């Protein structure tokens, strides 16, 4: 398993100097947790295997730690990459989950401004607030929270530490659990006002800022034609923000059940701007048959949209060449959607990538990019701290509605089953709210509990 | 090579796209189609002609004539050889055909004008734009002439890229198949829009480079947004990168680092004050270009510009994949650039990349928020700077040769031999050599 082999390599090479404690991924190590008090948590057990188990409760290890009692969590499309074994440096027993909110249970001695008993949502990335990137609010690239050397070797740089997302990002135990240790708690918690229920605030941890970053970073200008590849929760919210920016046409590229789900929840006043392309009904590659690219040209005056935003990810090969190359390890990501975007947008157009891509790809159409002046924009892991206050404000004013993506409410005990259902796109599952035994009563207007 | 032949066959199958063409395309040599495009006087001229992979020759061909009403015939007084002409010589550009005249940079004197030409008269000194644009379509109106929709009929191009480039002189049927400018006479379609008059105060040896080198290098720096205080790294030290270093310094970049593997690093340091260089052949042990850049500029540079070329595989794997057609371009330089750039920084590609590449580091690009900017081919407008003396294009001119020797010139350009950076090619119609420029050499 490549995933575990690289973890062994990392252990051999060693970390860069740690600024905050790394690799506390399951609270089972010495001094990391309290084995007398256990809790439920979703852990990675190998490729295609996740399981809810009992683990020790976390405790304060560093001065700025905060222990959070979780009242709301969820499952991310990018958690599925972990399930698939597509992300390297996973270790059996690692607790997953990077989107969670709750009530503060304990604070470390150096924590300022955080009150025990109050409600907070946590940013998926762990930022220090002081370094070169944090000062610019580019919190996702914080230099102090991730000491992993493999990512530095692969990328020439590394992202901030991320909750529940493998040792590549610092190995921090995640939030699909009843309790979480939040390092540098005073910089990574956002207070939730009383008038905002968990079912809205939770998504400030990742989905809402990530989709917003995709739109702001790639840039959508008034009047633009925008194509969105993949309409899971991120793609759905990207569409919503694109409309806010004044897009005159929004084209969703995906298949069922998602196209119907998102079309079904589309704001009525913007019905005229919506177009859908079901890629399963089309061909691909160099051909005279209809393809996603030819359809995009047809829908946008023969030239193609001004902007395309990728919200799918590199692990989803369509054709057998890429499937084969990925199986053999000849590449780690497919270039199929990238090529569709580069070829699909108009000359001097823009293509933004927010879906997770991790390594190397083959057959990338660099000729089209160079000759036609296309900008390929890695949106990066979204800098949550740059946007979340602004987005909380929009939620309170009623101009941002996270409920449009919410499809199910489930229990933490069932979260492993949910992973498999979500992966298979069963039950028209778009985005779930995971309740724990500490959760508040269900907010009005949100889905009722489903027990699996 | 096989790809070139397949490209030609594919185009024949897909069919040309002749709707909306604003000019007659694919007359890459007046001798084509039984000579019906040749000047009726039967006059002949010297021209540099592509005869196959690594086979370019100076031959006698018919003089061109006016075909469309907006055409102009120009008597050439200066031309040159481009690094990208070397890609054509190597046979890596799709849809090159035996007999095509090459060359996309020239200056000269107008000899005759078609009936619809309004801004030019015989006797005018002019320089061309390497790309042919109509001036009226949506992209031309936005001053993006290389994206012009009306001057290129290649359907294969559209299938491969999803969109079309404008026509380019002397650069294969992939981009319109227009006869090139390494000749004694040239036909210029849509002349009012594609020729710029040169004032008397600007000699050919300076004005010529307004056709390509100056706007292309300027565009690379402009389009990637180099601004005061930025740290910039530039791959390759041919004429484009050389001038890109110059423009970057002019814009107030704090540090400019040029990268190559030969004497051109010394040449650049001598001619452009403040430029730093990395000679990658001299790197030792584990050092690579990106690690060296991180050492020189901790955290990486703000902007990287790749001005090398997709055909230059460095390592064995890419050389093999290029040779066997598994990829058309290497990803090595672009990957180095992504790696050497700081998070949320930008990487611009102005070098010629034509097709598909493998082992492209998409993970780094996505996770670190890097913007990869395809510069496209560039627009124009630098005459005032040349006129006023603010920019001196001759700093990169190292040789002056005759058109009879231009085929040997290609080889020297390819090998970067004899201190060759950029040449000036004189014709029998050329004006006297301008003072301060290199003297004529026979090759």
TrEMBL record, chain A:
Keyword set includes Zinc? yes
GO MF annotations for this entry?
oxidoreductase activity; zinc ion binding
Q: Which residues belong to any copy of the Alcohol dehydrogenase-like N-terminal domain?
A: 63-193
- The question of whether tRNA-binding is a record keyword is answered with no
| Ranges annotated as spanning the membrane | none
- Alphabetical keyword list: Metal-binding, Oxidoreductase, Zinc
Cofactor(s) this protein cannot do without: Zn(2+)
Q: Which domain of life is it from?
A: Eukaryota
InterPro entries recorded = ADH-like_N, ADH_Zn_CS, GroES-like_sf, NAD(P)-bd_dom_sf
Pfam families assigned: ADH_N
Q: What is this protein called?
A: Chaperonin 10-like protein
Automatic annotation (TrEMBL), chain B:
The annotated region (Disordered) lies at 1-40
Instruction: Indicate the secretion signal residues.
Output: none
Q: Which UniProt keywords apply?
A: Metal-binding, Oxidoreductase, Zinc
Q: Which GO terms describe its molecular function?
A: oxidoreductase activity; zinc ion binding
The protein's matches in Pfam families, at most eight in alphabetical order, are given as: ADH_N
Cofactor annotation:
Zn(2+)
Residue intervals of the Alcohol dehydrogenase-like N-terminal domain: 69-200
Listed InterPro entries: ADH-like_N, ADH_Zn_CS, GroES-like_sf, NAD(P)-bd_dom_sf
> In terms of domain of life, where is this protein from?
Eukaryota
| Record's protein name | Chaperonin 10-like protein
Task: Give the originating organism.
Answer: Schizothecium vesticola
């Amino acid at each position: 398993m490549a995933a575990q082999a690289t973890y062994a390599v990392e252990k051999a090479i060693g970390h860069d100097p740690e600024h905050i404690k790394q690799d506390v991924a399951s609270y089972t190590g010495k001094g990391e947790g309290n084995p007398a008090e256990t809790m439920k948590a979703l852990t990675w057990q190998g490729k295609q295997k996740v399981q809810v188990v009992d683990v020790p409760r976390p405790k304060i290890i560093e001065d700025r730690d905060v222990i959070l009692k979780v009242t709301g969590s969820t499952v991310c499309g990018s958690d599925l990459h972990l399930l698939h074994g597509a992300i390297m440096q996973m270790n059996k027993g690692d607790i997953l989950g990077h989107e969670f909110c709750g009530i503060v249970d304990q604070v470390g001695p150096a924590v300022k401004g955080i009150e025990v008993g109050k409600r907070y949502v946590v940013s998926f990335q762990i930022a220090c607030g002081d370094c070169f990137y944090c000062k610019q609010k580019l919190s996702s690239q914080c230099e102090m929270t991730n000491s992993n050397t493999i990512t530095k070797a692969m990328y020439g740089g590394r992202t901030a530490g991320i909750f529940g997302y493998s040792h590549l990002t610092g190995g921090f135990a995640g939030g699909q659990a009843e309790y979480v240790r939040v390092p540098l708690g005073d910089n990574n918690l956002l207070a939730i006002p009383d008038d905002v229920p968990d079912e809205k605030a939770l998504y400030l941890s990742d989905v809402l800022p990530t989709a917003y970053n995709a739109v702001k970073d790639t840039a959508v200008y008034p009047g633009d034609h925008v194509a969105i590849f993949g309409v899971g929760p991120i793609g759905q919210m990207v569409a919503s923000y694109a409309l806010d920016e004044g897009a005159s046409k929004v084209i969703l590229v995906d298949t069922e059940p998602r196209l119907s789900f998102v079309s079904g929840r589309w704001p009525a006043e913007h019905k005229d701007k919506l177009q859908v392309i079901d890629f399963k009904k089309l061909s691909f590659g160099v051909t005279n048959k209809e393809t996603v690219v030819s359809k995009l040209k047809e829908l946008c005056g023969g030239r193609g949209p001004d902007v395309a935003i990728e919200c799918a990810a590199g692990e989803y090969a369509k054709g057998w060449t890429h499937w084969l190359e990925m199986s053999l390890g000849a590449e780690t990501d497919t270039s199929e959607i990238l090529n569709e975007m580069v070829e699909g947008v108009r000359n001097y157009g823009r293509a933004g990538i927010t879906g997770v891509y991790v390594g190397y790809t083959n057959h990338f159409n660099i000729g089209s990019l160079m000759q036609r002046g296309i900008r390929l924009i890695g949106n990066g892991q979204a800098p949550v701290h740059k946007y979340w206050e602004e987005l909380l404000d929009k939620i309170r004013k009623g101009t941002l509605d996270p409920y449009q993506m919410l499809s199910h409410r489930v229990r933490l005990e069932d979260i492993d089953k949910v992973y498999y259902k979500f992966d298979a796109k069963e039950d028209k599952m778009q985005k779930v709210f995971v309740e724990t035994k500490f959760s508040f009563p269900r907010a009005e207007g949100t889905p009722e509990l489903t027990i699996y | 090579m096989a790809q070139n032949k397949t490209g030609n066959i594919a185009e024949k199958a897909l069919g040309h796209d002749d709707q909306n063409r604003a000019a007659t395309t694919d007359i890459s040599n007046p001798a084509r189609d039984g000579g019906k495009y040749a000047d009726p006087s039967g006059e002949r001229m010297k021209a540099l002609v592509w005869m196959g992979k690594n086979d370019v020759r100076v031959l006698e061909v018919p003089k061109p004539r006016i075909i469309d009403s907006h055409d102009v015939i120009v008597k050439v007084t200066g031309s040159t050889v481009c690094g990208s002409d070397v890609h054509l010589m190597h046979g890596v550009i799709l849809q090159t055909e035996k007999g095509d005249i090459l060359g996309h940079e020239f200056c000269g004197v107008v000899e005759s004008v078609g009936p619809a030409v309004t801004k030019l008269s015989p006797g005018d000194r002019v320089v061309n734009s390497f790309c042919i644009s109509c001036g009226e379509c949506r992209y031309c109106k936005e001053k993006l002439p290389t994206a012009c929709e009306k001057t290129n009929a290649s359907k294969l191009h559209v299938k491969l890229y999803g969109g079309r480039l404008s026509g380019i002189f002397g650069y294969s049927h992939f981009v319109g198949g227009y006869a090139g400018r390494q000749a004694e006479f040239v036909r210029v379609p849509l002349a009012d829009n594609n020729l710029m008059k040169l004032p008397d105060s600007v000699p050919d040896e300076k004005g010529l480079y307004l056709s390509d080198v100056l706007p292309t290098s300027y565009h690379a720096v402009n389009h990637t947004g180099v601004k005061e205080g930025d740290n910039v790294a530039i791959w390759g030290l041919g004429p484009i990168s050389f001038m890109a270093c110059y423009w970057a310094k002019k814009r107030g970049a704090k540090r400019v680092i040029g990268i190559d593997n030969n004497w051109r690093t010394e040449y650049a340091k001598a001619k452009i004050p403040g430029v730093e260089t990395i000679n990658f052949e001299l790197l030792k042990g584990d050092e690579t270009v990106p690690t060296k850049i991180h050492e020189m500029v901790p955290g990486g540079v703000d902007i990287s510009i790749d001005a090398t070329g997709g055909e230059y595989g460095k390592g064995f794997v890419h050389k093999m994949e290029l040779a066997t057609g598994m990829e058309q371009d290497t990803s090595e330089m672009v990957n180095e650039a992504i790696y050497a750039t700081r998070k949320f920084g930008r990487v611009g590609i102005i070098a010629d990349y034509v097709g598909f590449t493998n082992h492209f580091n998409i993970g780094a690009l996505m996770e670190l928020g890097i913007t990869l900017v395809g510069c496209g081919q560039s627009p124009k407008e630098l005459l005032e700077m040349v006129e006023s003396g603010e920019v001196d294009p001759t700093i990169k001119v190292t040789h002056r040769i005759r058109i009879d020797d231009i085929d040997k010139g290609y080889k020297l350009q390819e090998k970067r031999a004899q201190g060759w950076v950029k040449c000036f090619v004189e014709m029998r119609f050329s004006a006297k050599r301008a003072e301060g420029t290199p003297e004529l050499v026979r090759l």
